[in-house]
Task: structure prediction
Amino acid sequence: MRLLGAAAALAAFVIAAAPSGALARDRFDIGVFAKIGPPGQPEPVAIGPDDRIYVGTNQLGHGDAEAPSKVFAFSQSGGLVREYVLEGQPLDRDHGIQGLAFDRDGLLYALDRSADPRVVVLDPASGEQRRYASFRDVPPCGPAPGTRGEDCSDTRRDAAAGPDYAVFAPNGDLYVTDIDQALIWKVPKGGGDARVWLTDARLESAYGPNGIQFMADGRTLLFANTASNPGAGNAATGRLYTVPVQPDGSAGQLTQVWESRPLDAPDGIALARSGNVYVALAGASQVLVLSPQYSELARVPGDPAANQREEIPLDGPGSLAFLGDRVLISNHSPIRGDPASWAILDLFAAEPGLALHYPAITTPRLNLRVGRPRTDRRGRTRLRVRVTRTRAALRRPVAGASVRAPGAHALTDRRGGAVLRFRRRARRPIVVAAHKRGFVGVRVPR
Result:
């Protein structure tokens, strides 16, 4: 979330080991997972299908404001594995990464809130990047009552696009909150121009729609509005809303389910499998735990004095993401911009998170490794093959893939391996193909 609409910040990179999972921990104990330095100001955090932790930087005028944003990949022990520089940002303007989401094949979708607001698809294996979707300034809807699903915002003032958080639906549609234009975008599966899916006058405020996630039914969205429209009540309080995705894909009724204390500033959210809701309170510098009925269960740390006793006190927490029975917290420090605060913290929730949706967006890419063909005296050829699939930065074996060569067919085992046996025709190359919701062919010389 952009608290104070500033520019961009980047600072020093240091890594701290995560607290040992072997040690007993009290519920809601907070530790340090990793410290973040240049470019600093971590905000989005997401867990990839390669079990790595990905963190984006959202610079707000602190540190090196002219540096490009980065995505850092960490191991589960908090060690830095790789870093990626986001390409194509206009560096002379405000910029930063505000949201991250993964698809089934481990491609990472990053929300870039720069002067050219967009979704960038990053391949963690190759580092390749491409534009997936674009956002734009839409005009206010005017004096008539605001309508949903049309390209206008139900607001009094005109503001530029501010893509903030993203979540995939099971069918591959991407829903993106816009913190500045009081709306939720919908990007169709496969990408392209985003369309206004929901806008409502109650969402217009200093800081509007923010963290978002699908609930357990897979069709109802829960999202935070960081502040409030005076017409909806106290402008200093934030709220949680639900809205269902209708069978025809349109937005259903917007319902308020919770209101914060003044200046809490709810930001990112994460849902537990139990139905509990974890909310990052950027203003209060706490993590709030709500019951499935949205009653308050706990605030962590309990008060400012307890917060100051932490190894790294919470300072404007932004995003939350479940990692097993822990909740990772991006310590964003959006107002103070303190490099000592820039870290990913680790809260022991003692319960697992609700699974996110990782839809199939593109045809998966299969990798086929073929050994050297061995032919006996009778002309029978034996060929070992192995089929893998790229998921994020790792290659995983593909079981049950159909592998063929002239006169031979086999299915891969759980390790992705298979052996083809056939009679080889002289003076012809061997063509081997593998298929499982994807295709790759390899030609093996004679």
